[in-house]
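The instructor's notes for this session suggest beginning with a concrete chain rather than abstract definitions. Hand out the sequence below and ask the class to guess, before any prediction is shown, which regions might be ordered.
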Amino acid sequence: LARRNRSTEDRPTECTMDAVTSDCNFDILGGRQRISSGELMRFLHVAECDTVVLGGTLVEGIGNEMSDLDINVLAKERPRFGSVRASKHAFCHTREMDMCSSPEEEVFMTMDYYPNTDIHIDIEYWLFSEIVNIIERVDIGYRSTLKHCDVNYIEGDISRKEHLLLHRLMQGRVIYGESDIVPTKIHELRDKLAYYMYRKNMSHYWFFKDIVGALRASDIEMACEQAREYLIMIVCGANHAAGCTNPARKWWITYLKSNPY
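After discussion, reveal the predicted structure:
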């Protein structure tokens, strides 16, 4: 609780602030909370060549009071734990999501709270080279979906965290720096990613057979559970077919309500 209400002077100030050209204010939670990009920058450890993208469901307009502000820093290199004032962050994690302990360890993620609120801030540091690699794998996956009918043979595996990263870059806003990755390569990838996710999430004949088998065996509980999962998979697939790139299934009803089809 003390971290949530700490004053401006107590927050990290190691980030490069000289390149911040403007402090943009924007409202979230239906206008009940105003967020300052300048305040957010105080939590970051960025270089002049980095790009900072603010995303998440709060920025997207569908989040609630327990949702997070998700910030992705695109950088040539990650900050070292030894150069980060760890006491000014709630947590510092490595790429493997272990707690940072050695000064030479790269900091992948920090967690904090926006001043005088309970709004959680997740900050992740991604390398430009990692972004390019993810984009290449999505392209491989998309081209694979055009060749294979069976989802088990679709190539270009993308982790859930990488899915979320791409979605947040597509739906977020740049609050610091410039990069040709966000306005060009990322947004050009949107349709491919949505179709790739549609093919990966849509159910198939074999899943339907399992439901029929459970019904014929009079196992109603199993049949109901499988049918529920089957319908969620179908709806999530339909959302992706309509252009949704968010892999978080908890929002499937929210996206369904805005699905124009």
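Then share the key points. DSSP finds nine helices and eight strands in the chain. Residues 1-21 have pLDDT under 50 and may be disordered.
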